[in-house]
Write a structure and sequence with these properties.
The chain is an alpha+beta fold. It is built from 6 helices and 7 strands, in the order H-H-H-H-E-E-H-E-E-E-E-E-H. Strands 1, 2, 3, 4, 5, 6 and 7 form a 7-stranded mixed beta sheet that branches. The protein is elongated.
Length: about 200
């Protein structure tokens, strides 16, 4: 039983298929409705974002933020529920922390879904993170966000990083574990009752 549960847990955190995620031929989303000119500008900015997360040079955090992030009410949501970074300074600290100790991120920039309306753009794309803690731990990611035009440059106003994990295996593992515990408790109760009856009859 424990082996079944362990198998299901490993299915949840199985290594991401890097080639499939980054393949332009297997795009997860449509291209969106942004005109070609805007799409090119956004992809250029997303490539700059990718370059920063590839190089992870903490001495460049300030320049990275200045070129990519709006100073007006910026909001970044991390992969954990408590990772809510509101404001330019807190967003800067998140980026610096990511570069110092999170992992190597790769995103399928060229196949991103990009749509626009006036001076607002929203986008989504897939990628993965290879954790610094272990090169064997590679988890798929989703990156979504909103960009606004400021000083003739597209900048992030909102961003969300999300682990692209199928938790249906976790639910199945929990149900199996709960059933196993219930059966064990019932078995223990039956054995206990029989033992008590045996003791009282002698």
């Amino acid at each position: 039983m424990l082996l079944v549960i362990l198998f299901l847990v490993t299915r949840i955190f199985r290594r991401a298929d890097e080639q499939k995620i980054l393949s332009p031929a297997i795009a997860a989303y449509s291209v969106g409705n942004a005109p070609d000119s805007i799409r090119k500008e956004i992809i250029d900015q997303l490539n700059t974002f990718q370059e920063g997360y590839s190089n992870r040079d903490t001495s460049q955090v300030e320049a990275f933020m200045e070129s990519l992030y709006s100073r007006g009410n910026v909001l970044i949501l991390g992969t954990n529920p408590n990772e809510i970074f509101s404001g330019y300074d807190r967003a800067s600290r998140l980026v610096k922390s990511d570069w110092e100790s999170w992992g190597d991120c790769k995103f399928n920039v060229d196949s991103a879904n990009i749509s626009s309306a006036g001076d607002i753009v929203w986008f989504s794309t897939r990628g993965y993170v290879e954790f610094d803690l272990s090169k064997l731990l590679v988890i798929p990611l989703r990156l979504t966000g909103i960009m606004v035009m400021e000083d003739r440059t597209w900048k992030f106003r909102q961003q969300q990083f999300q682990f692209d994990i199928d938790f249906s295996f976790a639910l199945l593992a929990i149900l199996i574990l709960a059933a196993w515990i219930l059966v064990s408790l019932v078995t223990f109760a039956v054995v206990s009752v029989r033992f008590i009856k045996t003791r009282t009859s002698t």
